[in-house]
């Protein structure tokens, strides 16, 4: 008799769940990421700052630095801290220059970093800028180096990316450098993380590039003059729509440290910094074009 009652209750609960599914339950929270560079100047108390990141509305982060550790914490401890606040680690920004006299030593540095990223559960390792040389021969050497590092990253189950600023859109020997890099790196080993703000400031349309290279731009940096959407200079809706149409979804917000009036204290700047990252998260959470 008791068993029949339990089964009856379970069936009723399943029916309620089914009804809720059709009548509209609260949608899952969007994946909204933050590049921790945005708040790096206020990371003296790492746990307090990671808690603020979560409270601001972020559930994904991209770290920074070539050191396998994060803000003085080893990779496992940093992951545990992020887990505590419901934050996943998707990527890092790290650049390790090639030592032509010790290539194996250079690759060993990358191996240590990739091992750390595996510990943290990351998907990507992104080079946030690199000396591209003064001619196409030197730029090709950079592409060849990225291909080698990207091939190594694949051995660790990671994807190696490159993040642009505005200078990559300058012309070198008749070639737009960023386009040359895309067209002379191995698509199996290297992807590109497009910073939509710096692309715009470089005189280019992010949507045009998303259409031109739909399989090479796998991650976005969502950025504005400060708070996302405030300047009105960037068509975020068109960018997100094309990015999703290409089959990708991973993005992180990056905010530069606000510059204030002379005499502004660190506490005042930090307050504006945290306010800015919170407003950016709120904008993206509310935007119907962000999935």
What is the topological layout?
Layout (H helix, E strand, L loop, with lengths): L1 H22 L9 E3 L10 H11 L3 E5 L10 H10 L3 E6 L9 H18 L3 E4 L8 H20 L3 E5 L7 E2 L2 E2 H7 L6 E6 H6 L4 H7 L4 E6 L13 H10 L5 E3 L12 H21 L5
Parallel strand pairs: 1-2, 1-10, 2-3, 4-5, 5-8, 8-9, 9-10
Antiparallel strand pairs: 6-7
Helix pairs in contact: 2-10, 3-4, 8-9
Relevant terms:
single chain; 291 residues; alpha/beta; TIM Barrel; 14% strand
The domain count comes to 1
The count of β-strands is 10
Largest beta-sheet details: 8 strands, parallel
Overall shape = globular
Radius of gyration: 22 Å
Number of helices: 10
Provide the CATH superfamily: Divalent-metal-dependent TIM barrel enzymes
List the secondary-structure elements in sequence, H or E: HEHEHEHEHEEEHEHHEHEH
Percent strand equals 5-15%
Quote the CATH topology: TIM Barrel
How far apart lie the N and C ends?
Answer: 47 Å
Mind telling me the CATH class?
Alpha Beta
Q: Strand order across the biggest sheet?
A: 3-2-1-10-9-8-5-4
What structural class do you assign from the helix and strand content?
alpha/beta
Sequence stretches where pLDDT stays below 50 over 5 or more residues: 1-26
Mean pLDDT: 91
Overall helicity: 40-55%
- Please tell me the CATH architecture by its name: Alpha-Beta Barrel
């Amino acid at each position: 008799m008791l068993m029949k009652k339990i089964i009856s209750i379970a069936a009723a609960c399943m029916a309620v769940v089914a009804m809720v599914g059709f009548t509209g339950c609260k949608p899952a929270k969007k994946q909204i990421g933050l590049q921790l560079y945005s708040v790096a100047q206020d990371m003296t108390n790492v746990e307090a700052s990671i808690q603020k990141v979560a409270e601001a509305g972020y559930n994904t982060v991209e770290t920074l630095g070539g050191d396998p550790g994060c803000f003085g914490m080893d990779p496992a401890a940093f992951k545990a801290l992020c887990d505590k606040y419901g934050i996943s680690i998707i990527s890092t920004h790290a650049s390790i220059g090639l030592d032509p006299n010790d290539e194996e030593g250079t690759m060993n540095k990358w191996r240590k970093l990739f091992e750390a990223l595996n510990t943290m559960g990351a998907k990507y390792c992104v080079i946030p800028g690199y000396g591209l040389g003064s001619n196409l021969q030197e730029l090709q050497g950079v592409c060849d180096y990225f291909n080698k590092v990207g091939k190594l990253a694949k051995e660790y189950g990671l994807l190696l990316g490159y993040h642009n600023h505005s200078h990559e859109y300058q012309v070198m020997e008749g070639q737009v450098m960023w386009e040359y890099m895309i067209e002379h790196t191995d698509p199996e080993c290297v992807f590109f993380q497009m910073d939509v703000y710096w692309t715009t400031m470089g005189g280019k349309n992010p949507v045009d590039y998303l259409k031109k290279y739909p399989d090479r731009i796998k991650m976005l940096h969502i950025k504005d003059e400060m708070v996302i959407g405030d300047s009105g200079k960037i068509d975020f809706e068109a960018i997100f729509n094309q990015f999703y149409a290409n089959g990708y979804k991973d993005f992180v917000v990056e905010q530069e440290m606000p510059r204030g009036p002379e005499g502004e204290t660190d506490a005042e700047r930090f307050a504006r910094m945290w306010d800015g990252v919170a407003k950016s998260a709120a904008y993206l959470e509310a935007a119907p074009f962000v999935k």
